[in-house]
Design goal:
CATH topology of the largest domain: UraD-like
CATH superfamily of the largest domain: Oxo-4-hydroxy-4-carboxy-5-ureidoimidazoline decarboxylase
Helix content: 55-70%
Oligomer: single chain
Number of helices: 12
Distance between the termini: 16 Å
Shape: globular
Radius of gyration: 18 Å
CATH architecture of the largest domain: Orthogonal Bundle
Order of helices and strands: HHHHHHHHHHHH
Number of domains: 2
């Protein structure tokens, strides 16, 4: 792709935003040429409200592929303290919660929850989600996280109830694996294969 001279001279973050608008996806060559600031601006929201993950993954460039980029980001999370991992989990919104109704979630979270029909709940379903969200957060200290793009409402509710029986350590590990699945889907949507 040839960019007009005016675009080439733009600040890096704005330039890459325009490249994405034209091409739809970012190439590995573009990623590997990004400075730290642009990389964090581009990938800082892949892990929900946790730009520190992208910040710490940047030195792992060059990436052999999307899988390598994702692995570098997941390794950052795996190496962080337990408190840091729980803070990352706590940055996620409740499923079908107040943030969803107020439109206060990230664009990715809105689209993901809508893909499972969580934006079209009946009053009874909404009440059930609210009860489960409250019980889960009271038990574990962070919201229930599941890769909703891979589930329907019934499967999400069944997983919710099953996972409430986990120990805190098991549930932190389970929630992190779900975050890794969610973030791989997000990266696949951003990066050209």
């Amino acid at each position: 792709m040839t960019l007009p001279e005016a675009v080439i001279r733009l600040p890096a973050g704005e330039k890459w935003a325009r490249v994405r608008a034209v091409s739809g996806k970012i190439t590995l060559a573009q990623i590997d040429s990004m400075d730290r600031t642009t990389f964090v601006q581009t990938f800082g929201r892949v892990f929900e409200d946790s730009p520190w993950v992208a910040e710490q993954a940047w030195p792992a460039r060059p990436f052999a592929g999307v899988a390598a980029l994702h692995a570098a980001m997941c390794d950052v999370v795996r190496r962080t303290s337990r408190a840091g991992q729980v803070a990352l989990l706590a940055a996620h919104p409740d499923l079908a919660g107040r943030a969803a109704h107020a439109g206060a979630m990230s664009g990715s979270s809105i689209a993901e929850q809508a893909s499972a029909g969580l934006d079209r709940l009946t009053d009874d379903e909404y009440e059930r989600f609210a009860r489960l969200n409250a019980a889960y957060t009271a038990t574990f200290g962070f919201p229930f996280i599941i890769a909703v793009r891979r589930h329907d409402k019934a499967a999400i509710l069944a997983a919710f109830e099953r996972r409430l029986g986990h120990t805190k350590d098991v549930e932190i590990a389970t929630a992190l694996e779900q975050v890794f699945e969610i973030t791989r889907l997000r990266l696949d949507a951003l990066v050209a294969p």
